[in-house]
Amino acid sequence: MQLVRQNEECAVRRKNRSRVALAALTVTAIASGCASGGGSDAVRPAHGQQPLQAPPARALYSYAQQLGAAHAARVTAAKRWGLARTPLTAPAPPATKPRLKTRRGFEVKGQSKLPPVFTTIPTKKKVVFLTIDDGAEKDPAFLRMMSDLRIPYTAFLSDYLVKEDYGYFTKMRDRGVSLNNHTLNHRYMPGLSYARQRREICGMQDVIEKRYGKRPELFRPPYGNYNRDTLRAAKSCGIKAVPLWNAEVFTDRMDYREWDRDLHPGDILLTHFRGREDWKGTMPDMVRRAMKTVTAKGYAVARLEDYL
After folding, report:
1. Which tens digit of pLDDT belongs to each residue from 214-229?
2. By C-alpha distance, which of 199, 177, 187 is closest to 131?
3. Which of 64, 67, 93, 198 is deepest in the core (most CB within 10 A)?
4. Residue 155, φ and ψ in degrees, nearest 5
5. What is the CA radius of gyration of the chain?
């Protein structure tokens, strides 16, 4: 019996040694393949690095290079545009969009069947959303700055201002900016009849579709004022949501809706297309003010439409 057990133990040890040897050979083969510089699949490495040949390794290497290049470009752009700190990069958009609800106190009668009105997107991520209203100032430097810094933003346009230069906002659209509805003439909506409100909203829907190729789903009432007829009219024109704001950016300050005068995850920021005629500075000055506050508080600017 003892001899049988010894033979069994020897067999087990031989089997384990065979497995180890096979694993070693496999590792050697993989290492040899990864270290080989031949073949059309090889990726040229940086000086002092091993070539990467396996497809997952190539993809990872390429992705890391892209991230590094994008960050370096953003750092350079931040210095060029006079930002004290490089803007933080927003995290990936949520796979499941948050459920939007009308903010308490902002409801109208029958709100559950009307587009939601909100000032903050439900999220735990440290992101805020920059939105810009009307279209009065058409500063080319602003377009360059936002493209260089890769800061996303959403525009809400009024035709009586936009029509002075439709082409400016075509350039904006071509840079991936979403163009949305702020009415034709920027009227105080609760002071208008349902029919006139509908003309203001649907008319702007038609303008944006004609000029920029897409009918918006977002609407912001002028001054943030609305009533039940406003939301009914907006819904009838194809509007799905009514984002307001929780903080407002100027060239020299930020104003807050909340008592704590601070930013919160998911806050929507409002500013305007304005220049020196209305402000103590330019639109790039406004961006510098916004990013100084946002970045210092550890927030990134994310794309609003990615959360809707």
Report:
1. 999 999 999 999 999 9
2. 177
3. 198
4. -105, 140
5. 28
Helix (H/G/I), strand (E/B), else coil: 182: coil
**Cα end-to-end span (Å), the chain:** 74
- The sign of the torsion formed by the CA atoms of 214, 217, 223, 227 equals positive
Residue 8 has what pLDDT? 45
Asked if 122 and 264 count as a contact pair (C-beta separation under 8 A), the reply is: no
Looking at residue 38, its pLDDT comes to 41
Residue 167 to residue 79: CA distance in whole angstroms:
29
Residue (of 181, 241, 176) closest to 209 by Cα position: 181
Q: pTM above the 0.90 mark?
A: no
Distance of CA 53 to CAs 39, 43, 69, 215, Å? 9, 6, 22, 46
The DSSP code for 49 is P
205 residue type, one letter: Q
Residue 142's CB is within 10 A of a number of other CB atoms, namely 21
CB-based burial, 46-58: b 16+ in 10 Å, e otherwise: eeeeebbbeeeee
With CA atoms as reference, report the closest residue to 295 among 144, 130, 142, 178. 130
pLDDT, position 61: 66
